[in-house]
């Protein structure tokens, strides 16, 4: 296992200690979340009784293979805790998510939970968000107009921006679980994440974007010198 995978696993297992019998859990997406799913599966097979809502089809498959009982937000609209990774987080627990393209379901699930614990290796903790391009999930209809509106929003906030349509590994256009496209927006460091959050959310063709503000309640970050916790 690579050093970075080892840190991801350490963060995932530290968060696992906060899972209690009877909990309704949101289950994240990505390589760090996959370590959490593996650990959770082991505990479930050892008798832990929980139920989970997966944040992607990929996670649903993984969790099912681990023997984790799954439900939907339609059946279980209120969750106790969501555990998920992030592409970047700052010390105020503002996040960039969506590197794996699951940001819409991830935001819906985390927002339906009392608490969200972010699990990450130390490379994800930054002073200021934005080195990682912000994933923006957009409707296919009117895509050209939506791109122009995103550029206009960036100009208003005095942020430069380069937009790239995300491609899948086979070179075809990436399509999310919800059937939408992803635009990766490089703004450089985001000076005002709250203002960016509102500006992007106000664009009709934007289905959701990967800035998570006021959602995470804690983060467990594994670094070579040990595991640290941040709290909102
Ligand atoms: O937001 C996500 C998926 O949409 C992931 O949580 C994020 O991309 C981090 O992934 P990884 O743990 O593989 O670094």
UniProtKB/TrEMBL annotation:
A Gene Ontology molecular function term of the record: ribose-5-phosphate isomerase activity
Pathways involved: Carbohydrate degradation; pentose phosphate pathway; D-ribose 5-phosphate from D-ribulose 5-phosphate (non-oxidative stage): step 1/1
Reactions this protein catalyses: aldehydo-D-ribose 5-phosphate = D-ribulose 5-phosphate
InterPro entries: NagB/RpiA_transferase-like, Ribose-5P_isomerase, Ribose5P_isomerase_typA_subgr, Ribose5P_isomerase_type_A
GO biological process, one term: pentose-phosphate shunt, non-oxidative branch
Positions annotated as active site in the UniProt record: 106
Tagged with keyword Isomerase: yes
Enzyme Commission number(s) from the entry: 5.3.1.6
Residues bound to substrate: 29-32, 84-87, 97-100, 124
Keyword ATP-binding: no
Xref: Gene3D superfamilies: 3.30.70.260, 3.40.50.1360
Keyword set, alphabetical order: Isomerase
Enzyme class: isomerase
CDD domains: RPI_A
PANTHER family in the cross-refs: RIBOSE-5-PHOSPHATE ISOMERASE 3, CHLOROPLASTIC-RELATED (PTHR43748:SF3)
Known partners and oligomeric status: Homodimer.
Role of this protein: Catalyzes the reversible conversion of ribose-5-phosphate to ribulose 5-phosphate.
UniProt family annotation: Belongs to the ribose 5-phosphate isomerase family.
Protein name as catalogued: Ribose-5-phosphate isomerase A
Gene: rpiA
């Amino acid at each position: 296992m690579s050093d970075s995978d080892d840190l991801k696993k350490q963060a995932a297992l530290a968060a696992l200690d906060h899972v209690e019998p009877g909990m309704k859990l949101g289950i994240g997406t990505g390589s760090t979340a996959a370590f959490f799913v593996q650990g959770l599966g082991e505990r479930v097979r050892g008798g832990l009784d929980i139920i989970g809502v997966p944040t992607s089809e990929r996670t649903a498959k993984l969790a099912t293979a681990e023997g984790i009982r799954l439900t939907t937000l339609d059946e279980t609209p209120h969750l106790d805790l969501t555990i998920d990774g992030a592409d970047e987080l700052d010390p105020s627990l503002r996040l960039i998510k969506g590197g794996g393209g699951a940001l819409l379901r991830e935001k819906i699930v985390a927002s339906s939970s009392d608490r969200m614990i972010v699990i990450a290796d130390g490379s994800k903790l930054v002073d200021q968000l934005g080195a990682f391009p912000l994933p923006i999930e957009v409707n296919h209809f009117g895509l050209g107009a939506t791109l122009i509106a995103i550029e206009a929003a960036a100009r208003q906030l005095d942020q430069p921006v380069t937009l790239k349509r995300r491609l899948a590994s086979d070179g075809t256009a990436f399509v999310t679980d919800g059937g939408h496209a992803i635009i990766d927006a490089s703004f450089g460091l985001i000076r005002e994440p709250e203002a960016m959050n509102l500006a992007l959310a106000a664009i009709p063709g934007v289905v959701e974007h990967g800035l998570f503000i006021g959602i995470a309640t804690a983060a467990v970050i594994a670094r070579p010198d040990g595991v640290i916790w941040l709290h909102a």
